Amino acid sequence: QVQLAESGGGSVQAGGSLRLSCVVTGSIDSNFWMGWYRQIPGKEREGVAAMSPADQRTDYADSAKGRFTISLDNDKKTLFLQMNTLKPEDTAMYYCAAWVRGGGPSMSLFIGSRRILFNSWGQGTQVTVSS
Q1: Whole-number Å distance between alpha carbons of 33 and 98
Q2: Pairing label, strands 125-130, 10-13
Q3: What local confidence, expressed as pLDDT, does residue 28 receive?
Q4: What is the chain's Cα-based Rg?
Q5: Which residues of 88-117 are buried (b: 16+ CB within 10 A; e: fewer)?
Q6: 126 with 9: CB under 8 angstroms?
Q7: 3-class DSSP state for residue 34?
Q8: How far apart are the C-alpha atoms of 9 and 7, rounded to whole Å?
Q9: Pseudo-torsion of CA 102, 81, 49, 40, nearest 10°?
Q10: Which of 29, 67, 91, 131 has the fewest CB atoms found within 10 Å of its own CB?
């Protein structure tokens, strides 16, 4: 079974930085994109950043471009989201997601210019940005 666990969230002032980590237990399918999304209570989930493990291509939501960077360790065990110049509107619960063999029901998200299907995600890590 594959599990994903996010960490690295916290409280930061506007303009600050955080690096989120997503530890993958098991093996991801490198043929499918991985990503980060966020959600505010009562609001729809919002795709933030995505990466192709096969060739490390990336895509970002307009709100994240130039500020956030998604990356994956060479062993494909940890997915990162470096967040710089944080804004209060970045406040949300952040989740990492992937498509894995044996995963659960799928979820479709638009991240940047593409639509990505996921069937596995973590418990989330809270990011709070104060003005």
Answers
A1: 7
A2: parallel
A3: 81
A4: 14
A5: eebbbbbbbbbbbeebeeebebebbeeebe
A6: yes
A7: strand
A8: 6
A9: 90
A10: 131
Cβ neighbours, 10 Å, residue 80: 19
pLDDT per residue as tens digits for the range 65-106: 999 999 999 888 999 999 999 999 999 999 999 998 888 899
CA distance 117 to 97: 9
pLDDT at 75: 87
**What's the CA gap between 51 and 71, in Å, rounded?**
7
| Of 95, 113, 128, residue with least CA distance to 16 | 128
CA distance 101 to 115: 19
Measured in whole angstroms, the distance separating CA 98 from the mean position of its chain's CA atoms is 9
Token code pair at residue 126:
């809270």
Region of 64 (left: φ > 0; alpha: ψ -120 to 50; beta: rest) is alpha
